[in-house]
Amino acid sequence: MRLQPWNRRHLIERIMQIAMIGSLVIVGLCLGAILWTIIARGLPSLTWQMISQTPKGGFYMGKEGGVLNAILGSLYLASGATALAIVFALPIALYLQTYLATSGWAQLVRLALDVLWGIPSIVYGAFGFTLMIVLGVRASLLAGIIVLALVELPIMTRAMDEVIRRLPRDLAQAALALGSTKLEVALRVVIPQTLPGIVTAVLLAFGRGIGDAAAVLFTAGYTDRIPTSLLRATASLPLAVFFQLGTPYPEVRERGYASALILTIIVLLVSFGSRWLAARLQRYTVK
Amino acid sequence: MSAHIDVTNLNVFYGKQQALTNVSISIPRQQITVIMGPSGCGKTTLLKSFNRFLELTDGTTITGAVHVDGQNIYAGDVDVTAVRKRVGLLAQRPTPLPMSIYDNVCYGMSIHQMRTSKADYTAAVQHYLELAGLWDEVKTRLHEPATSLSIGQQQRLCLARGLAVEPEVILGDEPTSALDPISSQHIEKRMLELKSQYTTVIVTHTLRQAKRLADYVIFMYMGEVVEAGVAREVFSNPQQERTRQYLEGVF
Amino acid sequence: MAQNPIQSTATTRNQRVVVASRRRTDTWARRVFFVITVLPIGLIAVVLIGLLYRSWPILSRYPLVDLLFGVDWKPSEGRFGFYSFIVGTVWVTVVGVGLAIPPCILVAIYLAEYAGARIRLLAKPILDVLAAIPPVVYGVWGLLSVVPLVETVLGPWSQQLLGFWGLFAVQQPTGFSVLAGGIVLAVMITPLIIAVIFEIFNTVPVDLRNASLAIGATRWETIQRVLLPQVMPGIIAAIVLGASRAFGETIAVLMVVGNIAQVPHSLFDAAYPLPALIANNYGEMMSIPLYDAALLCAALILLVIILLFNIFATVVLKRFVK
Lengths: 287, 251, 322
Hints:
The complex is a heterotrimer. Chain A is an all-alpha fold. Chain A has two domains: 8-45; 50-282, MetI-like fold (Orthogonal Bundle). Helices cover 73% and strands 0% of the residues of chain A. The longest helix of chain A is centred in the N-terminal third of the chain and has 35 residues, at 8-42. By secondary structure, chain C is an all-alpha fold. Chain C has helices at 12-61, 64-69, 83-114, 117-132, 135-162, 178-203, 206-214, 219-248, 251-254, 274-281, 291-321; strands spanning 73-74, 79-80. In chain C, strands 1-2 form a two-stranded antiparallel sheet. In chain C, α4 (117-132) crosses α6 and α5 packs across α6. The longest helix of chain C has 50 residues, at 12-61.
């Protein structure tokens, strides 16, 4: 019964364990490498001017200015798209769970959402752009918001559906037993109880939306001005990074790295913020 | 009577909650020992300390010693898979592995490389299925999935699978609680037949089953052993007030 | 008359009104909800039909075989062969998924079967952050780290050790290559694949593991012989899901893969995947006849392939949810 250290079975066990821990370490190192690269190359050019000013004349040759237009543009785009997506995602998730549960129609809708989730944003972007040509609409904040909402919708709905599915059955049944209608269950029981998860789902979609370049590439346009109207074109951070990296001027490329750092910081703030917020809200739910 | 399993000062904590307190007990060789007590008294915890199953749960702390044949199975250099080969477990619900009936019985033997030829394995499969009283029912369908068996047959298959790795001890965690009365009888009958070859330890919550099977009983309450002794004596003349109350059905 | 505190103040009459209005609200809500639920299904149909309609000019003019397997890409001369773009996409995807599979499976198994609560708590934010990093940032990382790595380290090594084998020969030593795209994609799809495989392992009942462990199997034997055969379809589905994500990825790949319209023959050759083609050219040069239709046709090809991937993965994974 003593352990035989070079027993073949235990050797395999050891090797596999080492391989697994090694893989986890590699994944961690990749993350470290990404963050380190972005910080090391982005930080030197990350000045106050970068985040407080719009591009001045000659900005794209390395002169004065910042990317405030892109920061605000991205926030507008992602906020608008998220708000629009909530309007559809929440009813769909509630309807799927409280009204339909696991009927055939619900399965079909879920399949559709999974499929939508898989469609690459470049396809949404290209589709949106053709639609705009047909309708005679120019690239604008509104068009960007609508296409980005299409990208966010399946992400948000699936996450909400998942959260609501985990709601204990008894809770909804307790409310139904008191004579509530399903709508009342949805609004008074399901939403308050799953609020932390819903908030997480919303912020997850927001984070995905703000980082997406392919969807807004054709639809939102790009401008040096801060958008003042839904019908004007707007800049966005991912595209600011992309365009600045494409120039031959080293100073501009350096600013591109700084823009990437700004985008990363925003996305990480949203990611950690959502977890913090969910933990705060957790206190108000029935365990 | 020689003890097969010796437990000394065993304490088990799940997180901060204590499940077993200073348990010291001896389990006799080649008899059926029944651990009984009200639910939540630590019966299953004690049972699972014998095959080191407690450590599968996160946050479990174990102190003390469990000796099987004089060897502490919690000593640092002990190979846990060897412990589990010697101390088999029949779980509460039958747990056929997702493979054929034949492969279920073969699984443990092939892991421990206990045979060398296919023919030897086949002979062993037949032997252990016979031992578990299942052979006649499955001999024509050995390569069908194990899940195609009835629950009662599945439990006997699990018994055969456990016996196939040639354990010395068989643990039963309420092994008949998920079964219908006929299937339960089957399992009980097997256990009585096998007890001359194996040390058997069973947890049960039904007193009648304890009386039918036990040579030796351990009565537990709130994580402690209240009384242990030869079954006939404990049942007819319990020494402790708590034991008597339990036997009279107060709990 | 003093009111009995137990008795409700509502009269039977207005009780009935309340019930009726509540029921009406519920019925209306149900209708509105239902209409909204049609949206996802409708959206797929609209996107498909829209792209099909807009790419019809080119689909009706050239045989499908010529479009899919034609190597010539000279839009100004009216020659539209997608072959090199399709092959480029496939190469980058296969390399990315191939690099991602072994560590993803190992990490997922480790987290599901071995790791204690502490390690899981440590691993979760790593995977969450990897999933949250935007594609363009992956692209920047690829440009700054992966491309130079391929150019100065991996390329020369490979040329020296395996240069006789075409797949590993370095013809275009710029670093902008299938391999660079594959590495970036591999890291991008890692959190997705790990999350799906982890979930699948969690659907396997604990009893099954215990049954194997109780016989004295080691953990790895239990995984290899009991769990893996059970979850294999799910793992394949997870990989397909990752592949479809990689297949459609645009910006990150575009930044590191070189974008030369050619059929790559080596890991170190540049490629030009379909999404990059669309992103780089759509909205410009619209004066060339059929160019617009050709790019939308590229989007349609992309969409159809990904639809097939996703439907396959979803149908397989659904079996595990039960």
